[in-house]
Amino acid sequence: MVTNTLQHKSQPNTMKTLAMGYILIILFGSALLMLPIASKSSEITPFVTALFTATSATCVTGLVVVDTYSYWSLFGQLVILCLIQMGGIGFMTFAIGALTFTDKRIGLRQRGLIQDSLNVPQLGGIVRMTRFILLGSIIIEAAGAALLSIRFIPQMGAAQGIYFAIFHAVSAFCNAGFDLMGYFSPFISFCGYAEDVLVNVVLMVLIVIGGIGFLVWADVFHHGYHLKKMTLHSKIVILTTAVLIVGGIVLFLVFEIGGDVSEGKSVGDNLLWAAFQSIVPRTAGFNSINLTALSSSSILLIIILMVIGGSSGSTAGGIKTSTFAVLLLCMRSEIKQRKHIYCMGRRIDDAVLRRVCCIVIVYLLAIFSATLSICSIESLPLTEVMFEAASAIGTVGLSLGITAQLCSASQIILILLMYVGRVGCLAILLAVTHNTLVSSKMPVENIKVG
What is the spatial distance between Cα 180 and Cα 28, in angstroms, rounded to a whole number? Predict the structure, then answer.
């Protein structure tokens, strides 16, 4: 009991450290991006533009107010790349990971910081997990870069092709959505590679691996593809991810039959763009088609996918696939009039449902509040504003093209959403509130709902 109390009291302190850590990294990145050397024009970048870009990179979002290739110099692009890598893996993972290769002992507080940063359930084996994540990330990103270089080197030359391959491999794995395709045309993303199987498949695989979560990595590493031997968390994440990807492909194809996006394309090309757009909203931010040409149904589907996001303990954002799955399981339990939530022969703790409800409510309130605020400032359609808000808090980076048009006040709202989406709504609430442990029980009284 004493142990639980200590953990309860120490958690807000670690959350404050993580929250402040991201703020300091964002401010440091903003300062670097404001330097004349960071822009191709050699001029000082306005603070809000630098802050927006640094926040988007650190929070692995991908929303931009200026084209990454056209505006930023090589120095500026490398700053963005470093922020993406640090934000995707987690700055505490980098810091503690570096210490693990020295003789310095990792204390209990540092282990607690890694635990909260990675969102893993226990402290045991946390240092070993950190090494696993760092080495695994390097290997996966290097493999992705090697495959992408097969396409980029013939098009751009050796040096430029390798650089582009590394940048996009890191951006895809970290689910960041930043791209350098402004090399061909500003803000085009991967529309020029819509029918390129190699580029699309490599990016999709990197996004899924990065967004599936480090705990699932460990499970797959130890148990291979034997799903029955994995933890309930891994089973739920893998199955939910598969259903969302397949369901997204089917729905996109149904919604866009005979539309501008699918017209004139072969079956294979339609499957390719549908698969790409089914994966990237959770939460990479690339696009291989013109999003403004999609139907309203497809736009709403993308918003839903952006809100769901990736998986817990990953480089992705959103409410997370496991959160979405628990909501569905709760609904099933209520329909079947069960007292508890069951899944695959296991009972899910009631505390998990309370956490799920809190996460979903805070996310939806943040999206609606931001949409309402931006709509009151800007003369823009509701759908476009809500799309941008969902993209920001889901750390996705997809845009219907209005981000660069927003005034500074609206951009600051999106900055706050990106920060909340990366750090986590519960982490921020724990960081700014002081909770006391209440041992007594209040009288029970029922209320009517529904």
Answer: 23
